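User: I'm new to structure prediction. If I give you an amino acid sequence, what do you actually give back? Let's try with this one:
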Amino acid sequence: MTTAPVIIGIVLVKNEDLFIDRVLVNILEFCDKIIVADNLSQDNTQRRVRELQQHHKKIYYHSIASPAQSHDLISGYAGTNTWIFAVDGDELYDPVGLKKLRHRIVAGEYERQWMILGNALNCVDFNIEKGYAQGYLAPPCRSMTKLYNFKVITVWSGPCSERLHGGEVVFKEGYDKSLRLELYKNICWDDAEFRALHFCFLRRSSLEKVTDSQKVIRKNISDTLSENIWARIKSRLLKIVGVEQESPWKLAKYMRGQLVTKPLTPFL
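Assistant: Good question. You get back a string of structure tokens that encode the predicted 3D arrangement of the chain. For your 268 residues, that looks like this:
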């Protein structure tokens, strides 16, 4: 008898205390285990995760000194009947949609796939009182959702800049990296099961100062890795005084097409 696949969430965070509670709650039923890799948060992120951990034993908290260490927390699952679901602290998934997706995964519908990419709304506005989110859809933006079938690989070794980024992937015979199921290109937002509100243009930490309406376009790892030493020093000095610099990468990838408005109901 074939055992059902296990779904493990790997949540990489750094100063995410405004949304981390809801981010984790929304993926609880989808995941069998949730690993939170906290890259030295200085706000209330750790406290909020620890509080949730007391009520939900499937949440495991790890403090890491570098994003690269987050890959070590999941690399050992290569070759096992495991799906790895990577979530950031600015990604709020549809829990009802994930429940349907879990049934499909457990039933083996996607066992021949290496990677599944879902829909996303890159939010520039998020209003709980009025019940809407406004932003840019993927497509035409790129999808940032990350769900990998570790059963089809034998190893994913480093060095990796963060979990599931870089390194060397060795596939089992009959599989390769082209086996990507791009759901977001064939299913519209309103019909999607695998979809997320992406708060990449919003304030996510109580430490962040808001200067442009409510938009805080925090740099990501891709931005940092492309900087020279002087640019990195400048970024660190600005962070000390609470100023976040804009991310050119996010502006290019996540702000395409028309600005749309969608209801929050499925996510709350």
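You can read the tokens as a compact description of the fold. Here is one thing that stands out. The first strand starts at residue 6 and ends at 13.
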